[in-house]
Amino acid sequence: MAVEQSLIRRIFPAIMVFVLIPGAVIALLYWIFSYVTEEPLVEDRLVLKEASFSDLKGWQADDFDGFMEAFGKSCEKFSRLPQDRSLGGQGIAGTVADWSPICQEMELLPKEADVLRNFIERKFTPVLVKNEEDPKGMFTGYYEASLRGSLTQSEKYATPLYLRPDELVMVHLGRFRDSLKGQRIAGVVKNGELYPFADRKEIEEGALEGRDLEIVWVDSAVDAFFLHIQGSGRIALDDGGALRVGYAGQNGHPYYAIGKTLIKNGDVSVEDMSMQAIRSWLEQNPDKATELMQENASYIFFRELNTNGPIGAQGVELTALRSLAIDRKWMPLGVPLWLSTTIPTEDGSDPEEFNRLMVAQDTGGAIRGPVRGDVFWGYGKKAYEGAGAMKNEGQYWMLLPKPVAARHFSENNPSS
Question: Residues 293, 199: one domain?
Fold first, then answer.
């Protein structure tokens, strides 16, 4: 296997130590092994390839139900932005001005599949998204969680959902370096410097107690943990009322998928791994559950929502099976994406095809890479089961306004 030049440059000093001090061989081999196994040799790189609508599997079959509603929300968001504002995601989607005419025309279209399909074919160019030369990536699902809670703390309702603390500072690194677009950190300022905020373990052990930051208390620490992963949920209150909460901030610690630990320890096989499998293990092992959940140092803060649905990273209400969470380092928010993947079947038979037009409207801590997505399934039992079991390979095409696509390929003159 070829080794990258950057790796050679990093190993070379250690090799010189080995040459000069033969006894360092064990340390050198350990260092190389650790580096190679813990850090990827090949970094992600976005590659776009112009395509045609005939390349989109199932394109003629989509009924577009819910798509205009979803995309219309993104268009409304665009309308409140300056015309010269970039859509982000490496700048590949142009500016708001490139999308405004399309949004205005689409708003007047009748909600008929054939009319919308014809309009999209006339106005857009599909562009295959690849990571280097690989068009395949992983696609998972998420949902709006359902919990039981109370506005009053008690022995039954003992797990709090917290508001975002005022001192938590979230830093979007792309505002300082173009190369860091889509990346962010968070922490607390002390003596003019940014320090890490409390992690999950510290917060759960009382780091925020006594500050009146609790929105509600819920009856299950496991349900609260999964709410942190999903980012939004509805809480049925013990007094008969209800409230909806949504993402308001994150403590800055990296997200860790605790399923990795269960696989490593042999508690759950790779083949059987799912959200339901993790939940089952946590509920069956209450004496070990807290310690495992605290391996994920990431912690989410919430705000109460007075909306008809959860709010995604673009600031719009999400639409079931039309909204997609992406890595905004690579993909711009608000753009249509044709997703071709598979989803689990209810009876456990072979996965069924899932080919439909989505809108990039959200992000997620575990969504990383040019070809990676998280399908929003909505609310309820079916959404929970579908999202929890979804972990399937697939690919997507970004739909760009024809002038934007022409400009991109003219400027970059790709060979791929």
Answer: yes
Q: How far apart are CA 355 and CA 394, in angstroms?
A: 10
pTM summary value: 0.77
Cβ neighbour number for residue 85 with a 10 Å cutoff: 12
Q: Phi-psi region for residue 408, left (φ > 0), alpha (ψ -120 to 50) or beta?
A: alpha
- What is the CATH classification number for the domain harbouring 106? 2.40.40.10
Bridge partners (DSSP) of residue 362 are 325
- Kindly tell me the burial class for residue 209, based on how many C-beta atoms sit within 10 Å of its own C-beta (0-12, 13-18, 19 or more): exposed
Which residue, among 168, 78, 6, has the nearest Cα to 401 in the 3D structure?
78
Instruction: Extract the runs of DSSP E, i.e. beta strands, from 40-167.
Output: 46-50, 124-131, 137-150, 159-162
Residues paired with residue 353 on neighbouring β-strands, in sequence order = 342
Residue 130 tokens, joined: 């690849």
Contact 20, 58 (CB under 8 A): no
Place of tokens 């003019």: 192
Residues 122 and 195 in one domain: no
| CA distance linking residue 27 with residue 180, whole number of Å | 34
pLDDT at 172: 82
Residue 413 pLDDT: 64
Is there a single domain that holds both residue 163 and residue 273? yes
Mean pLDDT, consecutive 10-residue segments, the chain of 416 residues?
A: 37 37 34 37 85 97 96 96 90 94 94 95 97 95 93 96 96 82 86 95 96 97 93 93 93 93 94 89 96 96 92 94 95 97 81 95 90 94 88 96 94 61
Evaluate whether 234 touches 146 at the Cβ level (below 8 Å). Answer: yes
Tokens 């562009």 belong to: 127
* Residues making up the chain, counted from first to last: 416
Q: Domain residues for 12?
A: 5-38
